[in-house]
Amino acid sequence: MPDIRVRLRGGPQDGQELTVSADSSGKPIPRITLPARARNPEAVPPRLIYERAGKNGDGTWEFRYTGAET
């Protein structure tokens, strides 16, 4: 499957763009998680959750922040 460029909205990564894999339908995978920044280098950082929200008029896909998990 090809990779797709997406834009993150909300949360600590707002505005960041990254490349994700496409699913079997050709859309970006429905959910991505990214490590949060931890102040303590020995701590296990929580994972930021972004879910596919839809495609913009300019053709870019957006993922919206939905929270964090540990």
Describe the 3D structure.
- With 70 residues, this protein is mostly beta strands.
- The protein has one domain.
- Helices cover 0% and strands 50% of the residues.
- It has a 5-stranded mixed beta sheet, with no helix packed on it.
- The protein starts with a strand and ends with a strand.
- The mean pLDDT is 92.
Strand content: over 45%
Tally of contiguous helical segments: 0
One letter per element, helices H and strands E, the order comes to: EEEEE
User: Within the largest sheet, what's the order of strands?
Assistant: 2-1-5-4-3
Sketch the major β-sheet. 5 strands, mixed
Global morphology: elongated
Overall average residue pLDDT: 92
Oligomer: single chain
Total domain count: 1
The low-confidence runs, each spanning 5 or more residues with pLDDT under 50, are none
Helical content stands at under 10%
The Cα radius of gyration reads 13 Å
> In total, how many beta strands?
5
Distance between the termini: 29 Å
| Structural classification | mainly beta
Region (Disordered): 1-32
